[in-house]
Amino acid sequence: MRRSLVRTVAAAAAALLLVRRGKSAARADPRSEHGAPSPSAAWSSEVSLELVRAKAEAFAIERAWTQFHSPRNVLLAMVAEVGELSEIFQWRGECRPNLPSWHAKDRVHLGEELSDVLIYLVRLSDRCGVDLSAAVLRKFSMNARKYPVGRAYGTSKKYNAL
Amino acid sequence: MRRSLVRTVAAAAAALLLVRRGKSAARADPRSEHGAPSPSAAWSSEVSLELVRAKAEAFAIERAWTQFHSPRNVLLAMVAEVGELSEIFQWRGECRPNLPSWHAKDRVHLGEELSDVLIYLVRLSDRCGVDLSAAVLRKFSMNARKYPVGRAYGTSKKYNAL
Amino acid sequence: MRRSLVRTVAAAAAALLLVRRGKSAARADPRSEHGAPSPSAAWSSEVSLELVRAKAEAFAIERAWTQFHSPRNVLLAMVAEVGELSEIFQWRGECRPNLPSWHAKDRVHLGEELSDVLIYLVRLSDRCGVDLSAAVLRKFSMNARKYPVGRAYGTSKKYNAL
Amino acid sequence: MRRSLVRTVAAAAAALLLVRRGKSAARADPRSEHGAPSPSAAWSSEVSLELVRAKAEAFAIERAWTQFHSPRNVLLAMVAEVGELSEIFQWRGECRPNLPSWHAKDRVHLGEELSDVLIYLVRLSDRCGVDLSAAVLRKFSMNARKYPVGRAYGTSKKYNAL
Description:
Structural class of chain A: mainly alpha
Distance between the termini of chain A: 45 Å
Mean pLDDT of chain A: 83
Radius of gyration of chain A: 19 Å
Number of helices of chain A: 6
Order of helices and strands of chain A: HHHHHH
Number of strands of chain A: 0
Strand content of chain A: under 5%
Largest sheet of chain A: none
Low-confidence stretches of chain A: 1-38
Oligomer: homotetramer
Largest interface: C-D, 105 and 106 residues
């Protein structure tokens, strides 16, 4: 347990550094179309992917739903939730960051649909035996190699067209 | 910082309890079609949603990509990744939990696509000003009310048909 | 065969009337945000849904692919194509009708991805035993009842909120 | 008009030939997992993509909805419908061709969701200035070159892995 605490503190510190680095870089970025990159508020840091995984698993087991949670069933359930998320955005035209013109009710609804996608995504990973925590850290490293800052700066081109 | 540590420990303990509760429930569940609900391995617990958020934000800022990350742009990028995830499953027919027959290479690829969806989902939440950490906990509570164990046990019916 | 010809001519005439009605209504519409509803060019009228169905079926049979075309396999293949279609639009921000600023190459690519979605959609219908030709006419009638012109005029609200 | 009739008859004849060719190939296919490729019933042949396009356009114009039908709005509406389609399949496990075990009510619902995807797909093409009729014929030709019968026979591999 002690080592795990140390790792947690280390991770939290890393996250703080990332945010801080992000913010100073933001100040220096003269090109951002949507105004200065908004100083995104940090989220409540104690919700881990593992907590979401364990909650989703417990939810299913308590209801005897594991039988329905084959990988492709859960994948299709996730696609259905992506559809509900898209529906919220479908007739709005382009939306500004932080959705300043949205009603509170719509923002709450948005949070619910984002959460539904997350829950099924995490559940899908779990049912496939994939440790999403490890996979996502690995993917960030891969992406950093695919999109080196020098060549990717300020362009939305795909890595194979850089 | 000390309070945050206490909260982290509390959350970790809650997660452990959830898993434990899940497992004992699992043993008692006689109906699971796919064999006894697999004792899902816990994931590396130090990856929080906030860490993913901060990393995705830093990645974008370092490359001056914030200008491209309007909510609907990121949403469509996520839909594109859901497509790549679906492509992995498309010709396989039904897949067993933990994908025992898959090649190691395909499992790694799967982890990458799951991660891409996660990264854009978290980024979308962030660009919309939604605290996904808070939203997902709230959604689990909602779901528990929508699907009370007594009525939802063993059925895949939608809440409005229970 | 003669009756079928008569029906084809009748359908073509109906389509012409629809377009014409559409265009005169367009002239009278003072509110359209994107300029006068563009006088959409009619498409080559001889491509029926049945032709697409028969071509997709023949393509699969010639390659002994029917074995792979279970309903959910084809559905996931379609979701994958929807992802590729979304990718074309993901970093562009809002796009004007007829995509005046797009390169010819991108428009051709767009036509290919739209076609891929169509082919799998038609194939999915066929593998499910659904006559999509009949279903779509029926759906237009349903939609007309759900969205009566009087109440739906000029609003993007959902039918249950009209 | 006479030339168009001739073309319509020619297209219908071509479709018949395709189906016939398909069926004889089907008889010779010994490997199909889902039984002999089902002799798919032909659909009502008079519904052309152009008819769907014209009806969708007229529907929008009559309700002054053209203002909402920007390409990305319609794309997201289509993604939402793909989600509703996926929801029908999500908890069912693998489904057999023609869905023999489904209730009549569910099959009707399926036809409605397939139609909704079709209508938005056609509408998206129209709003993008893409002639989907021409594009789909072109795509079938491309696919035939990408997947030559000799190399693609009996395998679900992607063209770049053949």
